[in-house]
Automatic annotation (TrEMBL), chain A:
<protein>
    <submittedName>
        <fullName>ABC transporter ATP-binding protein</fullName>
    </submittedName>
</protein>
<dbReference type="InterPro" id="IPR027417">
    <property type="entry name" value="P-loop_NTPase"/>
</dbReference>
<dbReference type="InterPro" id="IPR003439">
    <property type="entry name" value="ABC_transporter-like_ATP-bd"/>
</dbReference>
<dbReference type="InterPro" id="IPR003593">
    <property type="entry name" value="AAA+_ATPase"/>
</dbReference>
<dbReference type="GO" id="GO:0005524">
    <property type="term" value="F:ATP binding"/>
</dbReference>
<dbReference type="InterPro" id="IPR012340">
    <property type="entry name" value="NA-bd_OB-fold"/>
</dbReference>
<dbReference type="InterPro" id="IPR008995">
    <property type="entry name" value="Mo/tungstate-bd_C_term_dom"/>
</dbReference>
<dbReference type="InterPro" id="IPR017871">
    <property type="entry name" value="ABC_transporter-like_CS"/>
</dbReference>
<keyword id="KW-0067">ATP-binding</keyword>
TrEMBL record, chain B:
<dbReference type="GO" id="GO:0055085">
    <property type="term" value="P:transmembrane transport"/>
</dbReference>
<dbReference type="Pfam" id="PF00528">
    <property type="entry name" value="BPD_transp_1"/>
</dbReference>
<feature type="transmembrane region" description="Helical">
    <location>
        <begin position="75"/>
        <end position="98"/>
    </location>
</feature>
<dbReference type="InterPro" id="IPR035906">
    <property type="entry name" value="MetI-like_sf"/>
</dbReference>
<feature type="transmembrane region" description="Helical">
    <location>
        <begin position="261"/>
        <end position="283"/>
    </location>
</feature>
<feature type="domain" description="ABC transmembrane type-1">
    <location>
        <begin position="73"/>
        <end position="282"/>
    </location>
</feature>
<feature type="transmembrane region" description="Helical">
    <location>
        <begin position="215"/>
        <end position="241"/>
    </location>
</feature>
<feature type="transmembrane region" description="Helical">
    <location>
        <begin position="110"/>
        <end position="127"/>
    </location>
</feature>
<keyword id="KW-0812">Transmembrane</keyword>
Length: 334, 292
């Protein structure tokens, strides 16, 4: 079981309020991702759930029981740190067995659980090495191994993949998702990489300056962002946000249109502009088009290879069904 | 030093320093070895001009055969061992305390280092006269305050007194090295251990202590080398009596008090051998610890 309830949770470091009162309900077995720009308080929030950081106010309940002042070990949560935090002087085997040893399990049971975890994580051949003799990805797996042997009620991950190279990151992303499908344990995952958030999450929590901007499934956030911040944060490449005269034509302060929802034509359309930089990814092509009346270049995504070159004149037409409209406060108009 | 040319230039430029250091070391060493095979009693008229008698290994045999030899080795080991245990144990404790954030941290850290800057002679005299004096010392007053009979430290607890004094001098060194080691411990490791259910004592035993292993070996190695040759502290306090005659002190007595330079030199050679055995032994431990 791993239902985690945050009730008016607040955190201040001295005079600086990093997290204003915040409510969140995380259901059992859910994969929740916290995303937000750097310094928005994701790690702080996670560490408060873990018990490594005291609350300045509010209450944390785990499975309905008040855990606000419970020490970390009593909460039944396991954490995977960004730096892995492996014990350098212990072998991989002893690293993974450490929580079991602390819990006073007998040797046979320890060995059995370590072997099982090593099997799952492909670490069997490395059990007698020290962390210093492992690659980044292997260390990451040891850290996860140390977390799963305890059979916690929830896993907390703080940017676990940010030290890995791009290819390995994709691999580990899949492995963690796989692990979640198999264990069906609650996972809270902090990242600032919105691709990780979109691909792994059951629900995404978008944070800004300690405040929740929106909570929802990846597709909810993609289809109906609640405000301009979420609109700009979720999706890659970023949504084009246009304000001014063009927006008021649509009855809004700001309009947003995703690059994939703009049609390109060389004969006529709504916005007229000139192609700047184009990025060819093979499967897709991104154009940055400088349009008349729009200060920032508009990003357009076209499937496959297209014969449009730097300096060409094009007309862009946003798909009216996919147009997002926002009011003066930046909130979505429905 | 990539090219052959720059390498030989570097050798040439380092040569004066190397030669000077070698001379500095080799001249006294050769002289000690030379005297140790000679009969050299200046009071009886022996001198270098008149030529010294070659006596072979007689000095060596007499030095070991003397009834003071084994007690002096024992005293040396007791003092070195005692100081090492106290400085490492208290050093770890102090380092952990100083690592906690508290008001006035900077000043306290400087104060902790202060004893290291006091000359051994001075600190030993201060301890002897202000703390350990059986009539007027602080400890005597303290003992009397609790109704106990004051201890005459220098005669009844002489080895312990020396250990206390020398420990006080070397504690700052141990604390400083261990403090820097503790500060380099990744706090996330401690947090991970906390989440893994390790209580404070287990965290110390399983995380902090292994992390300090390297620093502790270095403290032991360096201190041993210096502690084997402590002299001033013994000279100004007990003068080598009451079981505080260490190997170094015995050699001093043979040369200066008995005016037997040959015998003292033989003792010096023994001391060199002993120090090298210990150093070799410690180096291997350090090497093993540093490999990890
Ligand atoms: N111990 C502390 N004392 C004072 N301020 C702190 C402390 N820890 C964090 N902060 C502040 O709290 C804010 C949130 O920090 P936090 O580490 O949670 O950010 P984050 O969202 O995890 O960022 P990143 O993505 O860069 O890791 C930051 O502005 C930071 O400066
Ligand atoms: Mg962070």
């Amino acid at each position: 079981m791993g239902r985690i309830t945050l009730d008016k949770v607040r955190k201040a470091f001295g005079d600086v309020e990093v997290i204003p009162p915040l409510d969140l309900q995380i259901e059992d077995g859910e994969f929740v991702v916290f995303v937000g720009p750097s310094g928005c308080g994701k790690s702080t929030l996670l560490r408060m759930i873990a018990g490594l950081e005291d609350l300045s106010g509010g209450q944390i309940r785990i499975d309905g029981k008040d855990a606000t002042n419970a020490p970390p070990a009593r909460r039944g949560l396991a954490m995977v740190f960004q730096s892995y935090a492996l014990y350098p002087h212990m072998s991989v085997r002893r690293n993974i067995a450490f929580p079991l040893r602390m819990a006073g399990l007998d040797k046979a049971e320890q060995d059995r659980r370590v072997a099982a975890a090593a099997e799952v994580l492909n670490l069997t051949d490395y059990l007698d090495r020290r962390p210093g003799q492992l690659s980044g990805g292997q260390r990451q797996r040891v850290a996860i191994g140390r977390a799963i042997v305890r059979e916690p009620s929830a896993f907390l991950f703080d940017e676990p993949l940010s030290n890995l190279d791009a290819a390995l990151r994709v691999g580990m992303r899949l492995e963690i998702s796989e692990l979640h499908n198999r264990l069906c344990t609650t996972m809270i995952y902090v990242t600032h990489d919105q691709v990780e958030a979109m691909t792994m999450a059951d629900r995404i929590v978008v944070l800004r300056a300690g405040q929740i901007e929106q909570v929802g499934t990846p597709l909810e956030l993609y289809r109906s962002p609640r405000n301009t911040f979420v609109a700009g944060f979720i999706g890659s490449p970023k949504m084009n946000l246009v304000s001014g005269e063009i927006a008021s034509r649509h009855g809004a302060e700001t309009i947003g249109i995703r690059p994939e929802h703009i049609a390109v034509s060389d004969s006529g359309g709504e916005w007229h502009g000139r192609v700047g930089v184009s990025e060819h990814l093979g499967s897709d092509t991104f154009f940055h088009v400088a349009c008349e009346g729009i200060p920032d270049p508009v990003t357009v995504r076209v499937g496959g290879e297209v014969g449009v070159r730097h300096g060409d004149e094009v007309w862009l037409t946003p798909d009216p069904d996919q147009l997002h409209r926002f009011d003066k406060q930046g909130l979505r108009i429905t | 030093m990539a090219t052959r040319h720059s390498r030989s230039a570097a050798r040439l430029m380092m040569a004066p320093a190397v030669i000077l250091l070698l001379g500095w070391m080799l001249v006294p060493l050769t002289m000690t070895v030379f005297f140790s095979f000679k009969q050299y009693l200046p009071m009886r008229g022996d001198s270098l001009e008149r030529g010294l008698d070659w006596v072979g290994f007689e000095n060596y045999a007499r030095f070991i055969g003397s009834s003071s030899f084994w007690p002096s080795v024992q005293a040396t080991l007791m003092i070195v061992g005692g100081v090492l245990v106290i400085t490492v144990a208290l050093g770890i404790l102090l380092a952990i305390l100083l690592d906690q954030p508290f008001w006035g941290q900077g000043v306290v850290r400087i104060l902790v280092i202060a004893p290291f800057f006091v000359m051994p002679t001075v600190s030993a005299l201060v301890w002897k006269n202000m703390f350990m004096d059986p009539v007027n010392g602080m400890f005597a007053h303290l003992w009397r305050f609790f109704g106990a009979q004051p201890v005459s430290w220098m005669s009844d607890a002489s080895v312990q007194s020396i250990i206390i004094i020398v420990s006080w001098q070397w504690l700052p060194f141990a604390t400083l090295i261990l403090l820097t080691a503790i500060q380099s411990l990744d706090s996330e490791q401690l947090e991970a251990a906390e989440m893994d259910g390790a209580p404070v004592l287990s965290r110390f035993l399983h995380i902090v202590l292994p992390h300090l292993g390297r620093a502790i070996t270095i403290v032991i190695l360096i201190q041993t080398i210096f502690l084997l040759s402590i002299f001033a502290e013994i000279f100004v306090t007990t003068g080598g009596s009451f079981g505080t005659r260490t190997l170094t002190y015995l050699i001093f007595q043979r040369v200066v008090d008995s005016q037997n330079i040959g015998l003292g030199s033989a003792g010096g050679v023994y001391a060199i051998i002993l120090a090298n055995i210990i150093a070799l032994f410690l180096m291997r431990i350090v090497g093993k610890n540093l490999d990890r």
